[in-house]
Protein: Outer membrane lipoprotein SlyB
Amino acid sequence: MKKYLGTMVGGAIAGVFVFAIWGLFTEAFGTAGGWLGGPLVVALVWALNHYVGAFYLPDGAVAIDMAVAIGIAGTMNGVFRGKPIAAAMPTLFWMAVGAILGGIFASIVTDVIAENS
Structure:
């Protein structure tokens, strides 16, 4: 039970950090802040969730946990601010397209690495 609770809390932290802190970087430094905030915020949360071990990730599992948590947090962020969930559908669609393309690319890279080993 503890491992699942850690995954839920770590995912919530990831979503909150992305939507709270990344925007502050963008407000303070403009576009450069957005580009700077991405690696800093995601790296910090990744270290907490994966290196420290907040997330439960079984052997052989694919680590899409933070992306799903951040996507859900972003969708619910708008809903909690009174916007209809339909407004988030284009973003969720493109997030799904990106996830599919990322999975295809990861599969190709894994196959190439396996062939060269």
User: Anything to note?
Assistant: DSSP finds three helices and no strands in the chain. Helices lie at 2-51, 65-80, 89-116. The chain has one domain: 2-84. The two ends are 38 Å apart (CA to CA).
